[in-house]
Design a protein that fits this description.
Alpha-Beta Plaits
């Protein structure tokens, strides 16, 4: 069966309530589909108007009244604020696989005032409250998704056509006080979270939501060998020096076992001086392979800048003291030393396989964001790859 693309739009209200992680976890684990791309949007009035015009459809299993509620909701809640003219944030997730539209829609669910369970995303995060006269008092769909493959194609092409102008790393979507100085920081949800269809990527985002920050950029990224080498470049010299004592002790123990005599402490230190840089380079190469899927030494130079085989999610968080707040929730590099409730304690295995990376300073954030380029539009590239342009 041919591959399909299905989209899920996370509404501004759902983003504001930090429900993104829980929704992503459900979509990944319950559909088994590949998260192919993700992009933040600050939808313009023009995009919102055009999208609203194609929402009501005879192909949608929901009754017309619900469809009209969704259309009116889109016009009111996705367009820029009519008072401040400030754009709102929306996140579009793109899933790929067989029967992707049906699988996504079954997890998203339909909207009904009678539903009381939590089986679907809309059961849990959406609301439809009617008064005694059967009039709508409150309505929140939580997410938006196409009902059929044909409608998914047309609506995806619409969003893709606006994805350069209205999408990327969004600007001016949040109001700050005169004394508040927001920062931006990069988070990478590492490849160990994507070995199989697991809720871990969403769970990590859910943990990070405790920082009280705003997601302003998201990208599904396959880091190249060249990018990984540049990204982790500052670590290389640290590893060459920091691991001297470790390699010295291990070399001493191995040689004593092999030859059956004790080696003086002075010679042990000498082993570290000789072997430490080589061991550090080896560890650095392993980090690059973990992130990109290829060892630098085994990589044909022509492939060095090609997307790697491993997948991660790159996020840009914005807010006051964003760098420190994210680092606090993330925890120390070594998961065994991370406090309970931190990302790395809950999801990390060792110093390298530690669930996520976050920038440690303003300078690092700027450097790392430039390398990963979260604003790159691979959302449109995936749509055009599957469905063509136009």
């Amino acid at each position: 069966m041919a591959q399909q693309l299905a989209y899920v739009i996370i509404t501004p209200y759902t983003l504001h309530k930090s429900r993104t992680g829980g929704i992503l976890a459900r979509l990944i684990t319950r559909t088994g589909l590949e998260l192919a791309a993700a992009r933040m949007f600050a939808p313009s009035a023009e995009l919102v108007q055009r999208y609203s015009e194609v929402v009501v459809s005879t192909a949608d299993p929901q009754d017309r009244r619900i469809q009209e509620l969704i259309r009116d909701y889109i016009l009111r809640n996705l367009a820029p604020d009519p008072k401040t003219k400030r754009p709102r944030r929306a996140m579009v997730l793109l899933f790929r696989g067989e029967e992707a539209v049906r699988k996504v829609r079954s997890v998203v669910g339909n909207i009904s005032a009678e539903r009381r369970g939590g089986e679907t995303i809309r059961d849990t995060y959406g609301d439809l409250v009617l008064d005694e006269h059967d009039q709508v008092r409150y309505f929140e769909p939580a997410v938006l998704a196409a009902p059929t493959p044909d409608e998914a194609v047309s609506k995806l092409k619409l969003w893709a056509s606006y994805s350069d102008r209205d999408g990327g790393v969004v600007e001016s979507t949040t109001i700050y006080g005169p004394e508040e100085k927001p920062q931006r920081t990069l988070v990478l949800i590492k490849p160990d979270n994507f070995r199989f269809a697991t809720g871990r990527p969403g769970n990590v985002i859910d943990f990070l939501s405790r920082a009280g920050l705003y997601i302003v950029g998201i990208k599904v990224h396959r880091m190249s060998v060249a990018e990984a080498s540049e990204f982790y470049g500052p670590v290389r010299e640290v590893l060459r020096t920091k691991l001297k004592d470790v390699v010295a002790s291990r070399a001493k123990a191995a040689l004593e076992k092999e030859f059956g005599f004790k080696i003086p402490a002075a010679e042990e230190k000498h082993f570290g001086e000789i072997l430490g840089p080589y061991f550090g380079d080896n560890q650095f190469d392993n980090i690059v392979k973990f992130m990109a899927g290829r060892l630098p030494s085994d990589c044909d130079p022509a492939l060095a800048r090609q997307p790697g085989t491993e997948r991660c999610i790159a996020l840009i968080y914005e807010g006051v003291e964003a760098i420190g707040k994210i680092r606090d929730v993330l925890g120390p590099t070594d998961p065994s030393k991370a406090p309970p409730g931190s990302v790395r304690r809950e999801f990390g295995s060792n110093i390298m396989v530690n669930a996520a990376h976050a920038s440690d300073s303003v300078e690092s954030a700027q450097r790392e964001m430039a390398i990963v380029n979260v604003g790159e539009n691979n959302f449109r590239a995936v749509v055009e790859e599957v469905y063509g342009k136009g």
